Amino acid sequence: MTKYHTLKQIPVILSALCLFLCTNLLAAPTYQINNVLELNIDSSINPATENYVKDSLASNKDYDLLLIKLNTPGGLVSTTKSLITTLGKIDKPTVVWVTPEGASATSAGAILSSAAHFVFMSPGTNMGAATPIQLSGDIDKKSDARKKAINDLTSLVKSLSEARGRNPQPIIKMISEAKSLSAQEGLEKKFIDKIASNKEDIFNFMNKKEILILGNPFEISVSNPKVKSVEMDIGQALLNTFANPNTAYILFLIGAALLYLEFQSPGGFIAGSVGAVALILSGIGFQVLPINMGALLLLVSAFVLFIIEIYITSYGILSIAGLAAMISGSLFLYRTDDSMMQIGFDVILSSVLAIVVFLLFIFWIISRDHKFIGKEKFNEHTDKEATIIKIKKVGDKYHYQIKIQGEFWQAISKNEYELNQVVKVKNKVKHELIYEI
Q1: DSSP state letter for 266
Q2: What DSSP element (H or E) covers 370?
Q3: 97: Cβ–Cβ under 8 A, 6 or more apart, which residues?
C-alpha cells in the first residue's frame, strides 16, 4: 500500500472514530437496579392507601425501583390524582403489576397504572371501566360536571401514556366508554408491556430497556435484585377498613340510629355515646373530617366515655367503646402528608394496657362488693372507729355526722361527744342507714 493510499484513508478513519465517539456520548447512561421496594394495594384507593404509599416512600430511601402490586375495585379520583403526582415526583422507575390471577385494576386502578413506567398483568386479570361516577349512581350521564370530569381525566391519562411511550387510546376508552381489557387485549393494544406470571418475568423484560426518568433517558440494568416488601401498618389497615364506602355507610347508619334512640329516651347516655363514636369514624371514612381532627375527637370521646362510666351503669359498654375510640384515635393521629411524627405502637399499646388494667381493677372491686348486696355484711362498719364531724341535739338524743374510713354516715347516741372525737361504732338502727355510737 502506497503512502498516497494511506493518506486517502485517514478521513474515513476519522469519520468512523467520530461516529463511534458520538454514539457512545449520546447513549443513555445505565440505571442499575439492585434494590426493589414492593408495595401491595389490595383494596380501594382511598386516603389510607395514599398514606401507605407516601409513608413507605418516605421511610425507605435505599430502593432503586418501585413495584406496586395492584388489585383494586377503584377508588377516589382525588386520591388517585394525588398518588399520580407522588409517583411523578420520585426519581426512580415505577412498575405497576396487576396480580394475582383473577385480580383487576378497575376505575382508579387503571388511571394509576397509566402513571407507571412499566405496566404488567398476570394471566387472567383485567383492567378498565374507569369512567368517573357520582355517589348518587351517575344518573345524569349528560351533565356538564360529568363531561368536565371525563375530559379532565382523559387529558391526564393521554399525557401520561404518551410520556411513557404507550398507546393512549385504550385508557381513553376506559374513561370515556367504560371499556375493560383482558391481559391479552392490553398486550395486543400496547397498553401493557408484558403478561408476567412472576417477578423474574418482569425483571427479565425490563433489562436493557430505555426509559425516561424525570425527562432524562436511562437504560435499565437489572439482574436478581433484592426485593423488600412493605405492608400497611396497623393504623393504615384500620383506616383502610373505615375508609371502605360500605363500612363508612354502615357506621353512619349505626351512629344515627343510636343517637335517635338517645333522643327518644334521654338520660341513658349509652346509646348516644356509642353513636357519637360511630359517627366520628364514619366522618373519617367519608373524608368529611380530616384524619387528624377525627383522631383528636376520638381521643376526647374516649376519656368522656371513661368519665361517664363512673356515673352510668353500662356494664362495661362505655368502657369498651372508650377503648375502641382511644385505640383508633391514637393510630390515626399524625396521618397527614406533611407530618414528620408518628406515635410509636409500643407507646399506644402500653397506654391502652395501663387503662385496661385500671378498668379491670375497678371492675374487680365492684364485683367483689356486688356479691354482698342484700346481705347484712355489705359495707358493714360495726366495731370500727369513727370521727365526729357534726353534732345536733334532738330531744334527748344526739344526732351526729361521722366519718368512717373516708365515708360519711349519720349516727345517733344518748351520749354527748365533742367534734373530732374518735368513737366506736355499734350497730345500725333497724331498717335505717344510721349507726348507733
Answers
A1: T
A2: helix 345-370
A3: 67, 68, 69, 70, 119, 120, 121, 122, 196, 202
Q: Which of 168, 142, 144 is nearest to 157 (CA)?
A: 168
Tell me which residue has cell 390471577.
Answer: 101
Residues facing residue 422 across a β-bridge: 387
Counting Cβ atoms within 10 Å, is residue 4 exposed (0-12), middle (13-18) or buried (19+)? exposed
Sign of CA dihedral 180, 182, 183, 189: negative
Strand-strand pairing, 194-195 and 118-121: parallel
Within the chain, how many helices (H) and strands (E) appear? 14, 15
By three-state DSSP, how is residue 165 classified?
coil
| Whole-number Å distance between alpha carbons of 346 and 133 | 42
As a whole-number percent, the residues of the chain with pLDDT over 90 amount to 26
Single out the residue of 197, 172, 170 nearest to residue 182, CA to CA.
170
Side-chain-side CA neighbours of 81 within 13 Å: the count stands at 10
CB 64, CB 35: distance < 8 Å: yes
Residue pLDDT, tens place only, 33-60: 999 999 999 988 888 898 899 889 988 8
pLDDT digit string, tens, across residues 174-216 = 888 888 999 999 999 989 999 999 999 999 999 999 998 888 8
The secondary element (H helix, E strand) that includes residue 408 is strand 407-413
- DSSP 3-state of 6: helix
Q: What is the pTM of this model?
A: 0.68
Cβ(122)–Cβ(183) under 8 Å?
A: yes
User: Can you read off the three cell numbers belonging to residue 35?
Assistant: 434494590
Measured over all CA atoms, what is the biggest interatomic distance in the chain, rounded to whole angstroms?
152
Length, in residues, of the chain: 437
Q: Which residue has the cell 384515635?
A: 329
Tell how strand 434-436 and strand 407-413 pair up: parallel
DSSP 290: -
What pairs with residue 31 in β-bridges?
Answer: 220
- The DSSP code sequence of 255-285 is HHHHHHHHHHSTT--HHHHHHHHHHHHHHHH
Residue 406 to residues 366, 383, 386, 402, 427, Cα–Cα distance (Å): 17, 16, 10, 10, 19
Tell me the one-letter amino acid at 259.
Answer: L
Residue for grid cell 356494664:
315
Q: H or E stretch including 411?
A: strand 407-413
